[in-house]
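Subject: sequence -> structure tokens, single chain

Hey, anyone have a minute? Need the predicted structure for the following. Not urgent.
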Amino acid sequence: MKFDILITDCTLLPAPGEEALISSGFIAINAGRIAGLGPMAECPSDATGTRIDGHGQLAMPGLVNGHCHAPMTMFRGLADDLALATWLQDHIFPAEARQVNPDMVYACAQLAVAEMLLGGITTVADGYFFEDEVARACADTGIRCVAAQAVIDFPAPGVPDPARNIEAAHRFLEHWQGRDPLITPAVFAHSPYTCSPQTLRRAKELTRHFQAPFFIHAAETRDEIAQIADPMAATPIRHLEALGLIDRDTVCVHCVWADNDDLDILAERQAGVVICPQSHLKLASGRAPLLAMLNRQIRVGLGTDGAASNNSLDMFREMDLAAKVQKVMPCDPVAVPAARILEMATNGGAEALGFGLGHGLLAPGSPADLILIDLQQPHLQPFHNPSLLVYSAGAADVRTVIVNGTLVVHNRQLRTIDLQASMDRVRQLAISS
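Reply:
Had a minute. Here:
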């Protein structure tokens, strides 16, 4: 029996969030999907294909980074320890005006993908300017990406005339829809305070026409409502609801200051939510009400945000912090258990982004997006249960990454990116800017 890839003798975690492990198992991959898996005793004796010895390693679904601005690797460490408004208005927006161009976006997105793949991220939701170049970088390097063209109501890279922001988004959706199996095109309306009600409505209408996801930063800071030029309600979420923007294809990012009424709206409309704990804490935005979201069965994923406000694209760090910060208030050590966090970083995150059943799981017929983690490390021994993946594992423990059935990282070597050339190019761009 011939398979494209056959992984043998690995510890299997097919469904993160459930602690059911197979101590010695196999995974067979064909045509980009899981063709079979189970205990080694059930592995077909005549199986052939590219073999990967999984001894001492744990196989699990790849991580889902629900929110990122990949090209912002250029600004990593540029403006640390600042309030969000100061960080954006005085540092990031001016730097973007000077430095963002298609070449920069492609090069910095490629470096971000290298970091994410090496850290076990197989799917990312990205939003930025010149998003064509981000999508191209992701397609070239083999990561699954929900790529969202940014919309904002002032001159922006690639769209110097704000009156043409929806037109630019339309071109992006038209170009990428159905073009590449790894790329899902979307629209990213920056926020309620940088987009007028008219722009927000037009952006949402565009995504409804193309049946595409709609992303927006919302309720990130305490005083965000005061920054909205023409508020339609008392909170940013209710402002979006009054505009008719919240539905199952809407993903609200951050939601740190979403109150109970806001959460009820998100739950009723079946919207997705992505929280970014590292960014929230670094910018002192606050702590997202994750437990209240989960209690309402809101689809919630985890994201790193961009490297300028995190400063890494490491989902293991994100999981660890997400679990711990939720325990602090109300001083409850079991508020959001590690198993739930692990689910949010895999199949739960995929669901929040609108992917169908099977994404983020290892099951026959599921997309073959998976990673192998080296358990033969001091900080991962003894391996009592998968909670160790949240509280102790790190990006450097990822040995092998497969996306859509393609081996993109093996023995910690990138197979689709010249890492040294990528780092050299970004350093050169930073020096010359």
